[in-house]
Write a structure and sequence with these properties.
Layout: H1 2-13, H2 31-49, H3 65-80, E1 89-90, E2 97-98, H4 99-120, H5 129-148, H6 164-171
Antiparallel strand pairs: 1-2
Helix pairs in contact: 1-3, 1-4, 2-3, 2-4, 4-5, 5-6
Length: 183
């Protein structure tokens, strides 16, 4: 999670204000909305790690999305490293779930939305092989469930020998070859 968080922080820091209205591969979000989603996700993840009874997600209203994301995701990574973070159940925007699943969902969001943001803004997400493998395994197991809830789009065909990150992206309904529209 820490490596994925650091990679996402690099991408978030590379976003320019003139890119805020640009589309992303995650069609429900433009760049600005995706930044807000990542900032909120980081706060939700931190609250899940400490098993907050009534999670308090402060809205982001400032003009420093990179700084705010960095602070929130660093707190999440720190708290997921705590001795009891992976034990029992917690909540992260959904009803109670195993804490380990909430931690994995954080990793999935960091990788998937980090890639979305990087692709939309002409950057590259540095994704460690272990993170790609974990995200792929999660999507192989939970992809159909996510599609049933409208979280993921239809699977995009990719060759069976495609890199793990590309296969994970495809299982989430993203085209690994996505580029921003011209103009």
């Amino acid at each position: 999670m820490e490596e994925a968080a650091n990679a996402a922080k690099v991408v978030v820091s590379g976003v320019r204000a003139d890119q805020f209205g640009a589309p992303t591969p995650c069609t429900e979000f433009d760049v600005r909305a995706l930044l807000g989603h990542l900032i909120d996700m980081a706060a939700m993840s931190q609250q899940a790690a400490v098993k907050a009874a009534e999670p308090q997600i402060p809205p982001f209203t400032g003009d420093d999305p990179a700084g705010e994301f960095g602070r929130r995701i660093d707190a999440a990574v720190r708290d997921w490293g705590g001795p009891e973070a992976m034990e029992g159940s917690t909540t992260m925007g959904l009803p109670d779930m195993p804490a380990e699943m909430a931690a994995t969902m954080t990793l999935v969001d960091l990788v998937m939305h980090g890639w979305d943001l990087a692709s939309a803004t002409g950057q590259r997400l540095a994704c460690e092989p272990a993170a790609a493998a974990t995200v792929l395994a999660f999507l192989e197991k939970m992809g159909d469930t996510g599609r049933g809830f409208g979280i993921f789009a239809a699977v995009v065909p990719v060759p069976p020998d495609a890199p793990e990150l590309d296969r994970a992206l495809a299982l989430s309904g993203r085209n690994p070859s996505w580029t921003p529209p011209a103009g």
